[in-house]
Amino acid sequence: MKQATRWMLAAALALGASRGFAADFNAAKYGAKGDGVTMNTAAIQQAIDAAAKEHGTVVFPAGTYLTGSVFVKSGVTLRLDKGVTLLGSQNIKDYPVMPSRIAGIEMSWPAALVNVYKQENAAVVGEGTIDGDGKVFWQAYWDLRKDYNARGLRWASDYDAGRPRLLQVFDSSQVQIGGGLLLRRSGFWTVHICYSHDVAVDGVTIRNNVDGRGPSTDGIDIDSSRKVLVAHADIEANDDGIVMKAGRDADGLRVARPTEDVVVRDSIVRDAKAGFVFGSETSGGFRNIEAYNIQMLAKVPVGIMFKSAHTRGGWGEDIRLHDIDMDGVPVVMRVNMNWNPAYSYARIPESEKNYPAHWKVLATPVPEQQGIAHFHDVKIWNIKAKAAATAFEVDGFANAPLQRFSFDQIDIEAKKGGHINDAQDWRFANLRLRSDVPIEVGKASSVSGVPASP
């Protein structure tokens, strides 16, 4: 067992044990009302602030508590028991704009509904619900996107449509999330762990595809963070399920913070655009990432995905993905180093004269030698996939091939094998591919253990 894995298991147990005797602070005593209509932001924050003085636990009577952004302080447990719902305000003014990182660049952005922001030793746990009620923010995005698409600004729409995440851990440490929480209808990403370390997300159910399918409602995003454990997650999202991120283009290369020492285990992705993902924000790099005992179902179009762009840069190494089952997932593994060009490459049209500062950041050129992501030394084993359409869709860059990927005990039932391009020293052992069309290996690739195409 890797040292990071041992640490995470011990840390999660220790963090839970350390909270056993904390004093309770009932939010109702500070004026919170669970009637679903009273705005409770100030009352909940007062309870949190009082609990912070004694490292206590904030609790609630059963009910639905309408609120804007709340900020969990150091030493505080925010406990949502069964029957308790935090319901997000649909007024964007109830989410204060703060310094953050969004989709790979540092900028000011509306706070999440629940925040652990520059704190330590904090927790958000329980069998209750955090409901973002996010449909109004989804529609605002689509309205902006329609206008931006017509102006050649597809790449800017995700950054200009400020939407609240559901739960963010930012620049914090020793944080515990889970214990049976239901997270639903996020306005944007659901759980965002950014610039943080020693974080355990254990026992969350994510249901974002209620009231429609919200754009960019990722499940769990681990962003330039380290020593992170994700376990027992059950995810339905309308974008990536569980995703590793590390910065975008010039700004991500400036920050240069990797995501590393991460374990994801014992989870299921039922609905998402992709199940387990690296990118597309890859600039800071990835190291020592392990995912295992993951199940993916038929509403997930792609099981394992690596995505980047030729301005993104970064790297990935010592990545281990194993014991993953896919049932009806159309594409088992996709690698696309030139992903979604309309979004990935920012070019400000000459017709745009007055624009926000972050447009210039997004459009800052990246030298070619810095812009290519380099993934190497990836191990993938014990993968079972049935009723797939395609086994592999792999496209790197000829001047930066994907190096030293090894596969063992791969059992795939698919209509076609797909293709592997720009891959160097890829090795398959114990590959069982039941397909009418074999895998096509590109001329620039070095792949062993795959039967040659007829």
Automatic annotation (TrEMBL):
Protein name: Glycosyl hydrolase family 28 protein
Signal peptide annotation: 1-22
InterPro entries: GH28_Enzymes, Glyco_hydro_28, PbH1, Pectin_lyas_fold, Pectin_lyase_fold/virulence
One annotated GO molecular function: hydrolase activity
Keyword Ubl conjugation: no
One Pfam family per UniProt: Glyco_hydro_28
Lineage top rank: taxon: Bacteria
Family: Belongs to the glycosyl hydrolase 28 family.
Key words of the record: Glycosidase, Hydrolase, Signal
